[in-house]
Every structure is written in C-alpha cells, then in structure tokens.
Amino acid sequence: MSEIEWKPRKASSIPLHQQISDYLKNKIINGEWTIGTKIPPQRHLAKLFQVNRSTIVFALEELAADGLIESRVGSGTKVINNSWSLLASTPPPDWINYVKSGMHQPNMTIIQKINQAETDPQIIRLGTGELSPDLLPNNKMKQILQLINEQSISLGYMEPKGSLSLRKTLSGYLKSKGIEASTESILIVSGGLQALQLISIGLLKRGSTILHETPSYLNSVHVFQSAGMNLLSVPLDDKGITVESIGRIKRQHNAALLYTIPTFHNPTGTLMSEERRMKLLKVCQKESIPIIEDDVYGDLWFENTPPKPLKSTDSQGNVLYIGSVSKTLSPGLRIGWIVGPQPVIERLADIKMQTDYGSSSLSQYVVEKWISSGLYEEYLQDIRKDLQFRRDFTIQILKKYFSDIATWEVPKGGFYIWLSLQSGISTRKLFDSALREGILLNPGSVYDKADDHHLRLSYSYASMDQLEEGLIRLAQLIKDCFIN
User: Fold this and answer.
1) Which helix (H) or strand (E) segment is 125 a member of?
2) What is the C-alpha separation between 195 and 187, in angstroms, rounded?
C-alpha cells in the first residue's frame, strides 16, 4: 500500500477525487486489492496522493456508494466487493485468509514500518545495517566487470555447491582466519539469511529449540520460527554469550543447536573475548550442541584484529560457519557461504538446488575475482578506515548531546552502537515520534521483545551530515518529549 507511485494529475479537467476514486476502483476490479484488503487510513492516502484529506473522503464515499468498500469504527475501511463478485453466483477466493494462513510468519509491525520508511529518500536512517552507497566500491566494481568481460564465462547453472573456482578461492581466504576448509566442505549461498533458511529446513525437526544470545538478530527475522522452531535466549555480557547456563538449558529443553554472532554482534556490537570463545566451544562440545557461527561482520575490525573464529579451533566438526560479502562488498551481490562437515554441506546443497538451482553465477564470478585479485583485501583496508572514522564521529556527537540521557560502549568493529537510554524513556514511543520527524530508528524491541530502553545505532549508512543532524534532532526530541 505504501509503494503507490501513481499521482492524480492536478492539471486534468477530471476532479481529483474522481481520478483517485477511479484509480482505487481499478485496483479492486483488477483483483489487486481483493475482498478483505484493508484500505490505508485517509491521512496516509492524502499523503501518498499529495491531496487534501477532504479529497480522499469524497473518493472513498464514491467507492462505498458503489458497494465496493465498507468502513467500520475500530476496524478501518476494507474491500467488501468487486464488480464481478457482485454478479458472480459463487464468491471469489478469500485471499486474505490465504495470506493469514501462510506458514511463514509476517514481520513484526515495527519492522514492516522500518522497511516501508527505508524507501523514503528524505528519511534519516540511523539504524540501517548496510554500508552507505557512498562507501560501496562502484569504480572498482567496474574494473572487476571489465576483467570478467575479457574472459569466457558461463551463464548457466553452477554445480550444487556453487562455483568450484569461488570455493577454491574461499578455501584460501578462510586460511587467513585460521579455518581449514576444502572445497567439498563449502557451500555457496545467497547471503547469510539463506544459510539460516537452509539449516532450518534441512537439519532440524519441527519443534526443535534454538539457543541464542539476547538480544539477537534472530528475533528480527522469522526464519526458524516459521519452520516451527522455538527460540530460547541465553544472557549476553560485555565478553559475549554467557556459558554457565547452557548445559542446564540444553538438558531442560533438549536444545538442537546454538546460534551466535561472536564478532561485532548484531545488534550490540559486542566482541566475544578469546577466553569466552574457548569456554563456549568446550561447553557445546561437552553437551553435544552444534554451533552456528555467523561471522558476516568479522572483516570489519578497526584498531586490532579480533580473535580467530570459533571454527578455527573446531576439531570435531561442531561448528557451522557462515560468511558473506553483503556487509562488506555489496548487499546486492547476494553471495555468502557455509562451511561445515561434508555430509551437512551435501545435504544443504541438495536442498538449495531444489529451491533455486544455485546462487547467481555472475555474482559468484564477481566475488571470486574480487578475492583472488587482491582487490578485496585492499578495499577492506579502506572500508575499515572509513567505518572507524564514522564510529569516532558518532561517538563525539553522543558525548556532546547524549551523555546526560544515555550510556554506550565503544565498538571495536562492525556497524553498531547499542545505546542504552535513561529509565523512563520508551523506545517504542520514541520510534513513532522520531519517524514523524523524518528520523528512522531501530528500537531494542526488534531484537528482544522485552527491551524498551535500547536503540541500535548504525554509523555505517547515513551520510556524515545526516548522522550529525539526525542525532542532534533525536537528542532534542528525547529531551523535549520524554524527559520532564
């Protein structure tokens, strides 16, 4: 509903309300808005079509008079008929019921609002977990594409595990992280999210329990929940996920696996210490709990290299390791990888072939060239400097404008600052207030339903001017509206 690009022509001889009424009527008649579809509120439509609210009222009254829509207090306005269903002897399919019955759970309402707001070029995005378009390597990407153009490449399907050339290159790249992985134990996937999807449907039974840090990225996506899994949180401190309760929780709930982001955790930015990594591996090996290690931020360190991944000291095949270029090189390439025991990789590769016949061959060529040419490592050196500068810039703004209303830790890499607001400041309410002011936030409730006092601040996406303006305005909004 929020993506309507059509606008009434104000220079037309046809009245604006009639143009809008005709447009909405066509949506209904053509089956785009099926019976049961909820019509956006009048104010929202007025904003979309850039007209007065009274114009919308007239347009909707015409649709109601035609028997196409109906308004009820408390439930809004819905489509109740279309022209052919008025004449048909049997009712049309109830698509709304189908939508509600789908196995995959919908996004939380607040995430839907975030996704919608991110399409507005005027909004200041203070929580977006992507690199700024200004930081993406557009010129170097052209060089890579020229190199590919000079070679003979296949645009057909790749083998089930992905491009052999890319897997060979990744095998060498992973050695720099201390991970020994043959090409047979690497699967190319369409980003880290697909890796989780394949694991959820390929390795786990419905009703399985997944352990994870709290707060957690897993709470913001419904991959495991939609596959019928149960999520169970394990506390997180400044050294990473706590390990003391893992054995007890595993036995009580028969946990199937543990998911963790040890390096520059999403959303807190926490870096798991080397000692904690060793303890986690030891506990999970003792309790026979497989680990999913999500390392998509691992290359984005600043002053010092982080401890080696869990996978680097995994001698028992206990860890499934996920990597990706989505957070470093380009989110649009949609290339990631899973490293694990060969039988697991073969199982997941078989499922991937059944679902999409493999990740984009062209994207795989591009990523292989980036890494094998050495350009990827050169680019990482530049992007680390850029992100470190942005982090320091953001910290200075926080010190100046937020020191009396919030606390935070300085991240050692990645994208995020986990901002803890003063008691009494509701981030759920702040989200709506800030959005009305053109500022988009990621509140803590996205990552932990019980959290109402944290914000995930990202210094990676907004421009420097937007970071400064957005944070200063946010601080003022908090002080004006939430602090007496």
Assistant:
1) strand 124-125
2) 9
Closest CA to 226 of 258, 202, 195, 201: 201
Cα–chain center distance at 70 = 36
Q: In 243-377, where do the E strands start and end?
A: 255-260, 291-294, 319-324, 336-339
* Residue 421 falls in which region: left (phi positive, over 0), alpha (psi -120 to 50) or beta: beta
Across 42-62, b (16+ Cβ under 10 Å) vs e yields beebbebbebeeebbebbbeb
Cα dihedral across residues 302, 305, 307, 311: positive or negative: positive
Report pLDDT digits (tens) over 4-53.
778 999 999 999 999 999 999 888 887 888 888 889 889 889 988 999 99
The β-bridge relationship of strands 124-125 and 439-440 is parallel
Strands (E) across 261-400 are located at 291-294, 319-324, 336-339
Instruction: Tell me the C-alpha to C-alpha distance, in Å, between residue 168 and each of 70, 339, 458.
Output: 61, 13, 34
Cβ(276)–Cβ(243) below 8 Å: yes
In whole angstroms, give the CA distance from residue 148 to residue 279. Answer: 45
What pTM did the predictor assign?
0.84
339 closest CA partner among 212, 173, 204: 173
Name the E strands within 388-483: 406-407, 416-421, 439-440, 454-458
CB-based contact 285:148 (threshold 8 Å)? no
Can you tell me the distance from the alpha carbon of 239 to that of 186, in angstroms, rounded to the nearest whole number? Answer: 29
